[in-house]
Amino acid sequence: MDLHSWIALLRLPIEIVAACLAVLPALVLLRAWSSLPGEIPVHFGFTGRPDRWGGRWQAWIVPLVGLGIYCAFSVATGSWNWLLGRPAELPRGLEPMILLRLSIGALMTYITWGTVRVALKEAERLDWRILLGIIGLTAVPAIALAGIGH
Fold first, then answer.
1. In terms of Cα–Cα distance, which of 103, 108, 104, 101 is closest to 28?
2. What range defines the domain where residue 138 resides?
3. Region 120-140 average pLDDT
4. Domain total for the chain?
5. Which residues, 6+ apart, have CB-to-CB distance to 34 below 8 Å?
6. What percent of the chain has pLDDT over 70?
7. Around 115, how many Cα atoms within 13 Å sit in the side-chain half-sphere?
8. Which residues lie below 8 Å from residue 94, measured CB to CB, with a gap of 6+?
9. Which of 48, 104, 133, 140 is most buried (CB neighbours < 10 A)?
10. Per-residue pLDDT tens digits for 19-31
């Protein structure tokens, strides 16, 4: 069974998890919003330590970017039409893009959760091993997607 067949077979669970991961960063932020200080970490260095701070409204950037990526990839892969019951064949070659939504959602969720924890002084930094692992999971489908045209 090739990747296209696997994605077609597992599409519903993939779509459910991707949608949950797309909104989870916003839910994490909403839950913590009232306790966030006025200044939060807005950038983390290679070791996961914050190296730039900004206003707490900037915490919305990561969840909104994640949601935007989810929406753009869902339109490109026909997922919106598929979820709405309209005819929508998964375009061959875009299978990795469906998987990318999962790892990007996980990355955005971890960054948002880590930002909240550091802002609330529950942690000193993001765990670079977790970041590297999620980035690695993001790289595999991204590399596959880039290599399809070659």
1. 108
2. 3-147
3. 92
4. 1
5. none
6. 93
7. 35
8. 76, 77, 145
9. 104
10. 999 999 999 999 9
d(CA 120, CA 40): 8
The pair of structure tokens assigned to 41 is: 């970490």
Identify the CATH number of the domain in which residue 25 sits. Answer: 1.20.140
Among candidates 61, 134, 125, which has minimal Cα distance to 104?
134
Q: Residue 32: pLDDT above 80?
A: yes
H helix or E strand, kind and range, residue 51? strand 50-55
CA distance 111 to 117: 10
pTM, full prediction: 0.87
pLDDT at res. 148: 57
* Dist CA 97 CA 76 (whole Å): 8
CB of 94 closer than 8 Å to CB of 76: yes
Q: How far apart are CA 21 and CA 93, in angstroms?
A: 23
Q: State the CB neighbour count (10 A cutoff) for residue 57.
A: 10
